[in-house]
Amino acid sequence: MTAVGCGLLLDEAVRNTVEHDARWNDPDGFAALHERLHDHLVEQIRTVPFDRALDAAGALHRLYRDITVLPPAHEGAARDSHEDEACKPVDEATVLGLIEDCEGPESAKNARFWLHHQPEAFRVRRPLPYGPPRACSAWLRLTAYEGETADPVVAAVWDHVRRHGPLRANERISVARFHAGPQERRDASSAMALSLRGLVAETVRTGGPAWVFFVLRDDGAWDGPLRRHGLLPTEHRWDVGGVPQRLFARDVRVFPASDWLRGLLRSVSGEGDGRDPCHRVNGAGLVRTDEARTPTGALSQREFADAVHAGLRALRRPSELALNPLRRSRVAAVGGEDLAAVLQQAVYELAEEQGGHGPHQAAVTAFVEGTATHRAAAERLGVSLSTYRRHLRTAVERVSARLWHEEVYPSGVTDGYTSSVGDREQSRVDR
What we know:
Helices cover 49% and strands 14% of the residues.
């Protein structure tokens, strides 16, 4: 046994021998024991204070270390005697130095912004019994659309959210950033151990984020471990201080923690592939373990526009409108209005826009009042059929654009760092 900051570690060769013997002699008993340990640790992650939840998440990782944790070459970094804890004000200069050394001055500048606005997001790993931080990482918890104008990396995160699943009312995202440690310029193993434990705690605990993101060096070293957590590389790449980085994403609403945990158990029982708890990847870059299901996440921009068009056509057919996916959207939820009222209001507001008179009349005639054919609607309005169709197409595009803007931006919010800065400033004073 080796004593470390988080408990006792059994020698790896001994552990593998005992595990192999137990699995060989009593596979059912081994699986049952594994499931009891799994359930105990998951319950701890969900219910205990966050710091203890991180320790339980680390234990869950070790339970499934063959499929979920660090690449084998980096295991040693997670086994040193250390203490993981929240970043203190006295540590901030050291943390910024670690980040600048690993990712350059531009990344350190962004980290300074977040240390000012979300100091509680940063965690450090220091040697026992005490010493300066040897590694750090941050889990930013953001509501729409914090930091978009201040941090280009966060701007890329929000761009991905808008296009692949906007937030609904009261939802947030979590972003893992600034994985840094000395002599770890290539992989930041100790910092990644912190971040991966944070990922489990973030997504398994009640009230977790709608999306989780990782920002990592774009060299492929972490693609496998992140995929096993449901995170896949996105199209967003950039260069930060000469360091190529990439954005990894997971829509937790489509691939919830329950699916990931079920996949872990399958890997032990033999139902899975023995290596990877994630079995299916759809076209949007989201991992699923189950067969296709109706996603609980929000709509992409194209899906939203199609749903608006379908909703307008179904305005006079309530039973069909009741099945429209817009019913799960922010625009239908805010204010408690039904979907028909939201769509009709958007049609009426066309009259207030420049050049909106023709599109407004065409939309009212086609969708609100209803006509048998486009030709009949054109005759009622006294315009040519081609003009009517052009006005109607413009009306649908403008209604979709107006509602999409309301969907992706909360009321009164346009962009930038917008939420409770004053509260966080007071929190920092208290610290």
